[in-house]
Amino acid sequence: MADEFDVIVIGAGPAGENVVDRAVRGGLTAAIVEERLAGGECSYWACVPSKALLRPIDLAGEVGRVPGLSLGPIDTAAVLARRDEAVSNYDDAGQVRWLESVPAELVRGRGRLDGPKRVRVTAEDGAERVLTARQAVVLATGSTAVVPPVPGMAEAAPWTSHEVTATSTIPERLAVIGGGVVACEMAQAMHGLGARQTTVLVRGGSLLNRMEPFAGELLAESFADAGIDVRTHTDIARVERPEPGGKVTVHLAEGPPLEADELLVATGRRVATGNLGLDTVGLPDDAPVEVDDSMRATGIADGWLYAVGDVNGRVLLTHMGKYQARICGDVIAARARGDELPAMRDLAGGYGAPQVVFTDPQICAVGRTEEAARRAGIRVRAVDYDMGSVTGAYLQGDGYRGRARAVVDEDRKVLVGITFAAPGAAELLHAATIAVTAEVPLDRLWHAVPSFPTVSEVWLRLLEAYGM
Ligand SMILES: Cc1cc2nc3c(=O)[nH]c(=O)nc-3n(C[C@H](O)[C@H](O)[C@H](O)COP(=O)(O)OP(=O)(O)OC[C@H]3O[C@@H](n4cnc5c(N)ncnc54)[C@H](O)[C@@H]3O)c2cc1C
Ligand SMILES: NC(=O)c1ccc[n+]([C@@H]2O[C@H](COP(=O)([O-])OP(=O)(O)OC[C@H]3O[C@@H](n4cnc5c(N)ncnc54)[C@H](O)[C@@H]3O)[C@@H](O)[C@H]2O)c1
C-alpha cells in the first residue's frame, strides 16, 4: 500500500467524503482516514436516525388534521426497526463500497497531523502508519456534543444526541436540557414515540432562539398541545443519579426538583479538534480551524491545510459541509494544475444557510432574520403572512397553523431572509433559497406564479403584503 497520496482527508463524514469525491474527479489520488464508521456522525447518530424517528410523528400530525382519516397508535418497535435500517444497522459496508468506487483508500484508525503534509494514523490495535500528502491535507473531523459543567451532570452519564438517536427504548419520563434544534427535534420524537412525561428545560426565554421569534412560539404552542412541558428561564443547579442508568433528579436553580428516567443534554456542539496534532503545524487545538472562502486554513505557510464541515465552525449543517467540500476538492485539484478556479468559493454561507427543523410544525429558514439583518446594517422591512389563510393550506386539513415572514432589503428590493413555520413547509424552502441566493429582484419574483391550490401561494400573499 502506498503511503503517499495527493490528498489526505481526516474524517469520513459527509464533508470528508465529498472532498475525496471531487478531488479524485479532478484527477488526484486520495486517502480518507476514519476512526469509527465511514459516513460519519450524520449517517449514524445525527441527521439520518433523527429524521427516521421524526417522520411518523410528522405524518401522524398530517393524518390527524384530515377529517375521515384515523390513525392507530404509532408502532414504536416498527419505527425503531426502520431507524436501524436507515442507519444500515451501524454497518458502513455500503459507504466502504462507495469509497472504493471513487476510488479512494479508506484508512481505518485515528488520524493526527504530524507536521506539514504528514498524517499519523493509529489503528484500533495500536499499529501506526504515516501518510504523506503531495498536495493537501483536509480536516473533516466534525463536532461532538457539549455537556455543560453542572455539578453531578457528567457522573449521571446523560444521553447526548448519540444515545437518543440510537436508543432502543423510549424513557417513560424524559428531561431535556436545551432549547435548540436537537432538543426540539428529539423531545418531539421521544414524546411521539411514547414518553409519557417530556420536559424541556430552556435556559433562555424561547425555543429556537436563533430563528424568527414566531417560530419558537408556534413550536411551543404545538408542544403544549401535544403535552410536552416547556419551561423557559430555567437554570440547572445540579444533577443526581445514584444508580447508573437509574432515576435521575434534576435540581433547578428555582422551584422543586424534576425527576426523570432519562436526561438528554442538547446544549450545543464543540468542534472536534482535540488531539488532532494542530499544535504540530502551529495552530490552536481548542478552536474551530479558521478557513478562507476556498476552505484553506489561514495562517499555514504554503497553504496545504484545508478544513470543511463542522470542524471549521462556519455552519453546523450537513448540506453546508458538503457544499464546502465540493469547493475544497475542486480547488485543491485546480491548484494542483496551477489554476485558482476563482469562481469556486463559498458564497452561500454569507447569505445565511438554509435549515429545516423537522418538528411539527416544520421550521424552515434561509438568509437572515429581521433582527440579524438590522444588526448587519441592512435597511429592511419584514412582512408576515398567516399561512393557515392560504387555500392550499386549508385543503391540507383542519387546524393547519403556520406563519411566514419575508425580510426585504429596502434599498436593493431583494429578499434577504425567509422563514416558514408550518406543517410540511420543508419543501417550500428551496424556492426561498433560490430567491435569496440568486438575489431575485422582487419585481421579477412577482412573475413567478405559484400553482393553485398549493401552500406555495404564500409567496404571492407575502408579495401582496409587501405592497405589490
Ligand atoms: C441529532 C442531530 C441531528 C442533526 N440533523 C441534521 C439535519 O437534519 N440536517 C443537517 O443538515 N444537519 C443536521 N445535523 C448536523 C450534522 O450532523 C453535521 O453538520 C454533520 O454531520 C457534519 O458533517 P462533518 O462531515 O463535518 O462531520 P461528521 O458527520 O461529524 O463526521 C466526522 C467524522 O470524522 C471522524 N473523525 C473525527 N476525528 C477523527 C480523527 N482524528 N481521525 C479519524 N476520524 C476522525 C468521526 O468519527 C466522524 O465519522 C444534526 C446534528 C445532530 C447532532
Ligand atoms: N434539522 C437540523 O438542521 C439539525 C438538527 C439537529 C442539529 N442540527 C445542528 O446541530 C447543531 C447542534 O444542535 P444543538 O441543538 O445541540 O445546539 P444549538 O446551539 O442549536 O442549541 C443549544 C441550546 O442549548 C442551550 N444551552 C447552551 N448551553 C447551555 C447550558 N449550559 N445550560 C442550558 N442550556 C444551554 C442554548 O441556549 C440553546 O438553546 C446545531 O447548530 C444545528 O445546526 C441541525
UniProtKB/TrEMBL annotation:
<dbReference type="InterPro" id="IPR004099">
    <property type="entry name" value="Pyr_nucl-diS_OxRdtase_dimer"/>
</dbReference>
<keyword id="KW-0274">FAD</keyword>
<dbReference type="Pfam" id="PF02852">
    <property type="entry name" value="Pyr_redox_dim"/>
</dbReference>
<dbReference type="InterPro" id="IPR036188">
    <property type="entry name" value="FAD/NAD-bd_sf"/>
</dbReference>
<protein>
    <submittedName>
        <fullName>Dihydrolipoyl dehydrogenase family protein</fullName>
        <ecNumber>1.-.-.-</ecNumber>
    </submittedName>
</protein>
<dbReference type="Pfam" id="PF07992">
    <property type="entry name" value="Pyr_redox_2"/>
</dbReference>
<dbReference type="GO" id="GO:0016491">
    <property type="term" value="F:oxidoreductase activity"/>
</dbReference>
<keyword id="KW-0285">Flavoprotein</keyword>
<keyword id="KW-0560">Oxidoreductase</keyword>
<dbReference type="InterPro" id="IPR001100">
    <property type="entry name" value="Pyr_nuc-diS_OxRdtase"/>
</dbReference>
<feature type="domain" description="FAD/NAD(P)-binding">
    <location>
        <begin position="5"/>
        <end position="322"/>
    </location>
</feature>
<comment type="similarity">
    <text>Belongs to the class-I pyridine nucleotide-disulfide oxidoreductase family.</text>
</comment>
<dbReference type="InterPro" id="IPR016156">
    <property type="entry name" value="FAD/NAD-linked_Rdtase_dimer_sf"/>
</dbReference>
<feature type="domain" description="Pyridine nucleotide-disulphide oxidoreductase dimerisation">
    <location>
        <begin position="354"/>
        <end position="459"/>
    </location>
</feature>
<dbReference type="InterPro" id="IPR023753">
    <property type="entry name" value="FAD/NAD-binding_dom"/>
</dbReference>
